[in-house]
Each structure stands twice: as structure tokens, then as C-alpha cells.
Design a protein that fits this description.
With 226 residues, the chain is mostly helical. It is built from 8 helices and no strands. The longest helix has 31 residues. The relative contact order is 0.16.
Length: 226
């Protein structure tokens, strides 16, 4: 299908553009870019709140485009020998045929869009340390679950992608992302809003953005050759 490479390139551009826009709002904000939750740049009263939100929605569009490109890829899975052995241990065939990865990207895109459309209030308060609003809970839930689902997409591509480059790239992304995500969750629940949590959050987002762009470009290259 001739549209797949263009869709994959559009996905890479949307993710890069959305992430770049979000980074601009952090750097141009009133405080140091490495402090506070990233989502604080999109709260009412911030100088580039609307810009941040549209940046996140653009990134979400890129994730959706990548999911569309991957869903139409011919021979998107290769079932390496070690994943076939795992399949013999009652793994679902849907996991190994790429379906789970595609749906995970779709769900992650929707949740990222919700996170951009429903901003948190000033300071992005979270329980149990601060009083929260419904918008705060919706925003936080969409953001956290979205990253978990994206990590699931990485893991399933590690298991199922036909391209060795995509498999190794997915492994290189998910292996550090999962423990960093756990550390971030512990900091948020046990400590609260501190600089260490902000730094870890940015590392997680950096891994996610780099993976999305790289997989999109590899998908475009593979599709162009078919």
C-alpha cells in the first residue's frame, strides 16, 4: 500500500513536532524546565498553556498515525524462534501477530489526546498530598495509563515485529522505561512533588518520543521497500 510510508513519515513528524512544541513551552515558561510536572505547562494561567495542549494533541495524532501504518504493514510480524516458544506456553496468538501492539498504540493515542484536552489545575495536584479536582484525576489517569499502554505496545513489538531493528529498538526502550515508570510512581505516591520525580518523568517521556519517531521511520523505510 503506497500510503503506508507517507503515513509513517507523517507520524514521525507529528510526534517530533508535538514533542518539540511541548519542550518549547517548558523552556519558555517562568520556571526552570526540569522542575514540576510536565503537564504544569498546560495549566490555566501559564503563558503557553494552549500551545502546550495542542502540542500534546499533535503528538497523540502522531501515535494514532503510527498505529494506522503498523496495522496495514504487510508481514508486520516475523515470530522469532524465542517468541514461538513463548507462544507454546499459552501466549495468545493475537499478541504475536501484531494486533495487540496496534490496539495499544490506538488506546495510547486516545489517552494522550484526553490528557491534552483536559488540563490539570495549577500545580497539577495529586492525592494523597493535595486536594484535587475531577479534571486533575482525569488528566492524571489519562497520562499514567497512556504511558503504561505505550509501554505495552513497546513490549509486544519486541515480541512480534518482523524487523529485527524494531524488535531491538523496542527492547531498548521498554527495558529502561518500565523501571523508570515504577520509580516515578513510587516518588509520586510516597514522596510527592519533588525535582527527582520531574527529572524521571522527563526521562520516561524522552524514551517514549524517541521510540515513536524511530519506529515510525523504520516502518516508513520497510513499507517503501515492499
Amino acid at each position: 500500500m503506497k500510503w503506508i510510508p507517507f503515513t509513517a513519515v507523517a507520524a514521525a513528524l507529528a510526534v517530533a513536532g508535538g514533542a518539540g512544541t511541548m519542550m518549547f513551552t517548558l523552556a519558555a515558561g517562568p520556571g526552570p524546565w526540569w522542575r514540576g510536572y510536565v503537564s504544569e505547562a498546560g495549566t490555566d494561567g501559564q503563558p503557553y498553556a494552549i500551545t502546550y495542549r495542542w502540542g500534546l494533541i499533535t503528538l497523540a495524532l502522531g501515535v494514532a498515525l503510527l498505529g494506522a501504518a503498523r496495522s496495514a504493514m504487510p508481514g508486520r510480524t516475523g515470530h522469532p524462534a524465542w517468541t514461538r516458544r513463548l507462544a507454546g506456553l499459552a501466549w495468545s496468538p493475537r499478541l504475536l501477530d501484531g494486533t495487540v501492539a496496534v490496539w495499544a498504540l490506538a488506546v495510547a493515542a486516545v489517552l494522550a489526546a484526553v490528557s491534552g484536552a483536559v488540563p490539570c489545575t495549577g500545580g497539577c495536584p495529586l492525592p494523597p498530598y493535595e486536594p484535587t479536582t475531577v479534571a486533575d484525576v482525569v488528566h492524571a489517569a489519562a497520562s499514567v495509563v497512556g504511558m503504561v499502554v505505550l509501554a505495552a505496545a513497546m513490549a509486544t513489538m519486541w515480541l512480534s515485529a518482523s524487523s529485527r531493528a524494531v524488535r531491538w529498538l523496542s527492547a531498548a526502550a521498554v527495558l529502561p522505561m518500565v523501571p523508570l515508570g515504577v520509580v516515578l510512581g513510587v516518588i509520586m505516591l510516597a514522596v510527592g512533588r519533588v525535582t527527582a520525580g520531574a527529572v524521571v518523568e522527563r526521562l520516561v517521556l524522552l524514551i517514549a518520543v524517541a521510540w515513536l519517531i524511530s519506529v515510525a521511520l523504520l516502518t516508513a523505510r520497510a513499507a517503501a521497500k515492499t
